């Protein structure tokens, strides 16, 4: 039989490699921008069209390439950055595998212009699907410009696999942040469909963080960060951590090692443990932590997309990192941060001549006895006030129940439990709150235990759902409008959900440059922070890969219901408990919360009897 093994043609091999290196437009941005940084570009322009699906262009003013290098750059394993295996351990450049350009050119249409400072003319190269279509000399600026069009044009399955523009853009921005945060000495200009969304001047790290994340509330962000710094033989650590009170459900968390973004769950734990007891469960602090270690003590080659790194001294670094963060948090607790921002503070003119100061004069009656009242209460028939109280429903929960007074007939099917008959007959006599968490009440078939938060969650959820369906939500004005500022990636999501937020009772006023004043909020939100609420909605959506608009109304209803439902620990009066039960059993589903938790359970008469045997 003939031999059957043969080498794959280059373009096929490249496409396979591309599967690993180039997963989406964001990977192209990462590879091109990292190349530009490796080439010493001090100013980098990034331009994307349609979330990078139509085109991605990265222009730098770095060292450029010779004619031969320009051709070589697109060969697989062609790199100027390492030449033998030992170099792998001393890598300082971002790239080193020599795979990126070959991979990109195998799945897209690429045009490159490049010129070195010593050359008069530059090189123009056009490649698509790994085939060179054109090579020429050209007039161009010093540096390199690479335009990548129609990513995955020749791999339709991959192109279809790309997510919505918003999801792809979120990935792009995330990659961009990771690079921009660690290269503050590089100036960046980022254009999304011809609109400049980032203009980042050369800065120090703190300013760079602010320029990216703190667009408008610059001062506020500055006040939220604490600096950290430690130098040891093993590692030197510097950077910024968020103050505990600014912790959020999803925060910006970045580790960099030797100028490269990494993910490190173990080190993340070291940071999180330092915040133990300082932040609420489910929340996490922001951090931007830059580690420097000897290049020989790390291996960055264990993952093709290179965000995972193996450290030789992992445990020691863990302890040092944990101690560093703790120290900074400790310092902050002892020495409260000073707000140097004097804007809006009242002006005090110092008094020069102390002798002329007169104490303020006040008049008071030294014989006044507050208990000796001359006031006599008018006669009033108090009983009249309470007449009919027993039969009237009192809406007593602070936020949520007072907007829908439609009396609903019970819709709930309760698997053989005859609740209503008994609940109604024993309304005031047999109801009891246990540990601020459960409502206990007797029913025909035994003893019913209701989780008060879960029950109220269900009630509020159904109420909000009905309101949203009717576009009839209840809103309350905020006394002092809060301003929410959004980075470009968050703004994209915000714009998509704004309409639904408004339907739910929010009103916004555009204050320019990606900021909005929140004028009113849904009344169910009560005293919850509107900004925190919206931010956490955006964070949730950023994480989700599915189409935002389809799922948003559901997410919004869930979140609003969850924040406004009465909490465990809240004492309830008998009237409130009865009211809650009535409303619960008027819900379409009274058995489970909208997120699937059990609302009540029954200990049957039989079980109770058995306990006494
Ligand atoms: P790697 O970055 O891993 O070396 P790439 O495929 O990304 O591999 O790039 C191949 C080579 O092309 C690089 O080693 C570098 O010499 C050259 N190159 C790529 N982009 C640029 C650029 N913007 N400026 C100058 N040289 C570049
Ligand atoms: Mg590279």
In short:
The chain has helices at residues 10-21, 25-38, 67-72, 100-106, 156-161, 165-180, 205-213, 218-224, 265-274, 314-334, 382-386, 420-425, 452-470, 488-503, 530-543, 548-564, 574-584, 605-611, and strands at residues 43-49, 55-60, 109-115, 122-128, 131-138, 143-149, 187-192, 195-200, 225-231, 236-242, 253-257, 260-262, 287-292, 298-299, 310-311, 431-434, 438-443, 446-451, 475-485, 507-512, 515-522, 600-604. By secondary structure, it is an alpha+beta fold. Magnesium ion (MG) binds at residues 31, 34-35, 95, 100.
Overview of the structural elements:
- The chain is of the alpha+beta class and 613 residues long.
- It has three domains: 10-200, Heat Shock Protein 90 (2-Layer Sandwich); 205-331, Ribosomal Protein S5, domain 2, CATH 3.30.230; 394-613, Ribosomal Protein S8, Chain: A, domain 1 (2-Layer Sandwich), CATH 3.30.1370.
- The chain is built from 18 helices and 22 strands.
- The protein has helices spanning 10-21, 25-38, 67-72, 100-106, 156-161, 165-180, 205-213, 218-224, 265-274, 314-334, 382-386, 420-425, 452-470, 488-503, 530-543, 548-564, 574-584, 605-611; strands spanning 43-49, 55-60, 109-115, 122-128, 131-138, 143-149, 187-192, 195-200, 225-231, 236-242, 253-257, 260-262, 287-292, 298-299, 310-311, 431-434, 438-443, 446-451, 475-485, 507-512, 515-522, 600-604.
- Strands 5-4-3-6-2-1-7-8 form an eight-stranded mixed β-sheet. The protein has a five-stranded mixed β-sheet with strand order 9-10-13-11-12, sandwiched between helices.
- Strand 7 (187-192) and strand 8 form a beta hairpin.
- It is elongated.
- Residues 334-352, 373-411, 413-422 and 424-428 have low confidence and may be disordered.
- The structure holds adenosine-5'-diphosphate and magnesium ion.
- The site of adenosine-5'-diphosphate (ADP) has 23 residues, from helix 2 and helix 4.
């Amino acid at each position: 039989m003939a031999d059957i093994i043969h080498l794959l043609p280059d373009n096929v091999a490249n496409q396979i490699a591309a599967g690993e290196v180039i997963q989406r437009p964001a990977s192209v941005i990462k590879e091109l921008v990292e190349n530009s940084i490796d080439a010493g570009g001090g100013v980098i322009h990034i331009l994307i069209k349609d979330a990078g699906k139509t085109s991605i262009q990265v222009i730098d003013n770095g060292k450029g390439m010779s004619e031969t290098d320009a051709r070589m750059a697109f060969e697989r394993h062609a790199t100027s950055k390492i030449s033998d295996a030992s170099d792998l351990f001393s890598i300082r450049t971002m790239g080193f595998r020599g795979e990126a350009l070959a991979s990109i050119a195998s799945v897209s249409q690429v045009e490159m212009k490049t010129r070195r400072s010593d050359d008069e003319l530059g090189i123009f190269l056009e490649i698509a699907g790994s085939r060179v279509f054109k090579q020429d000399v050209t007039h161009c600026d010093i540096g390199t410009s690479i335009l990548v069009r129609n990513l995955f044009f020749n791999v339709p399955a991959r192109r279809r696999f790309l997510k919505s523009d918003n999801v792809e853009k979120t990935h792009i921005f995330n990659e961009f942040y990771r690079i921009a945060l660690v290269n503050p000495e590089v100036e960046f200009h980022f254009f999304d469909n011809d609109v400049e969304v980032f203009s980042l001047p050369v800065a120090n790290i703190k300013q760079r963080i602010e320029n990216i994340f703190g667009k408008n509330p610059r001062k506020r962000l500055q006040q939220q960060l604490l600096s950290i710094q430690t130098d040891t033989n093993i590692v030197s650590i510097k950077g910024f951590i968020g103050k505990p009170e600014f912790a959020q459900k999803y925060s910006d968390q970045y580790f960099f090692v030797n100028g490269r973004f990494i993910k490190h769950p173990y080190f993340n734990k070291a940071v999180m443990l330092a915040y133990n007891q300082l932040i609420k469960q489910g929340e996490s602090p922001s951090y931007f932590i830059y580690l420097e270690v000897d290049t020989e003590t790390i291996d960055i080659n264990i993952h093709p997309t290179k965000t995972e790194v193996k450290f030789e001294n992992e445990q020691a670094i863990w302890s040092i990192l944990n101690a560093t963060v703790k120290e900074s948090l400790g310092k902050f607790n002892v020495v409260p941060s000073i707000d140097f921002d004097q804007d809006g503070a009242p002006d005090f003119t110092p008094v020069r001549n102390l002798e002329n100061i007169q104490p303020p004069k006040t008049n008071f009656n030294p014989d006044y006895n507050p208990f000796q009242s001359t006031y006599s209460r008018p006669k009033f028939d108090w009983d009249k006030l309470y007449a009919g109280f027993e039969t009237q429903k009192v809406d007593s929960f602070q936020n949520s129940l007072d907007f829908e007074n439609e009396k609903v007939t019970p819709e709930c099917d309760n698997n053989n439990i005859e609740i209503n008959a008994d609940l109604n007959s024993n309304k005031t006599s047999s109801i009891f709150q246990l540990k601020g968490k459960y409502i206990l009440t007797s029913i025909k078939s035994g003893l019913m235990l209701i989780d008060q938060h879960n029950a109220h969650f269900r009630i509020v959820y159904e109420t909000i759902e009905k309101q949203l369906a009717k576009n009839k939500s209840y809103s309350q004005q905020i006394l002092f409008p809060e301003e929410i500022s959004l980075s470009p990636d968050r703004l994209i999501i915000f714009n998509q959900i704004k309409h639904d937020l408004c339907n739910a009772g929010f009103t916004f006023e555009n204050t320019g440059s990606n900021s909005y004043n929140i004028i009113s909020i849904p009344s169910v939100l009560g005293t919850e922070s509107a900004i925190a609420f919206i931010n956490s909605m955006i964070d949730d959506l950023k994480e989700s890969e599915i189409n935002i608009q389809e799922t948003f109304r559901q997410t919004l209803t869930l979140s609003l219901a969850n924040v406004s439902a009465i909490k465990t620990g809240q004492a309830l009066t008998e009237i409130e408990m009865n009211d809650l039960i009535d409303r619960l059993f008027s819900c379409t589903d009274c058995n489970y919360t909208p997120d699937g938790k059990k609302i009540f359970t029954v200990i049957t008469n039989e079980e109770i009897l058995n306990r006494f045997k």
